[in-house]
Design goal:
With 248 residues, the chain is of the alpha/beta class. It is built from 8 helices and 8 strands, in the order H-E-E-E-H-E-E-H-H-E-H-H-E-H-E-H.
Length: 248
Amino acid sequence: MTQVSLSSGSIIVADWHRCKDSKEYFSKILHKKRRKNFGLLESPVMPPHVAVDTVHYKIFLSGKSGVGKTALAARLAGLNIPNMHYETTGIETTVVYWPVKLRDNGRVLFFRLQLWDCGENALRRFDHLLPACKEQVDAVLFLFSFTDRTSFDDLSNQIAKWTGAPVGRVVKLVVGTKFDLFMHCDVAERDVRNFQETWSVPVLRVGGEVSDGLGDVASLLNCLAEHLWHQDCVSARRHSQQETGTVL
């Protein structure tokens, strides 16, 4: 099923984290100007007079070993990125909270994104891990490294694992890591454009350098939130139409 391509800012307010009216919300995911680390049972606490709904999503990170899945999860959560690469031995989960403002009605939502990261070798060795990752998943981020051509060539195999009826409707985004390592770049922009046209999947880019600000992750988290919310709206409309048809 072809995924609808959304233009940035069509559903949510782009760069809302830079606006004055967002400070009250983003302050709840920050501590001393750094991101708060939320456990599985923790959440941002808003004042009683501010009503904010939280929407929950499960996100799986897919990609070859060494492309930066664990590092991306840490970056999106504002955690320290490991200096040394190590193979994830099982399933690791990371919770990310991200506030967004809907463009059509000004409603503010907290997106709770639970990121699932599983090592490639572990997926091969244990048959039960991939079904566990696929269960009730809402989105998949397919990762490749701009410094590893084989990881880019493997994207079609990665996506094929997530195509078909058992998976259901899942948001699919591709993330190219190590984009700022120009001297070691092994994937041309022409190849990325051709891939986007062939697969109709957005390709996002992240570098290796990290700052403490929100700008590093805003574009990726906003794009993910936008596609997730759009998918929910489409599913809700379809469900409503089916109920109407049943009544008639």
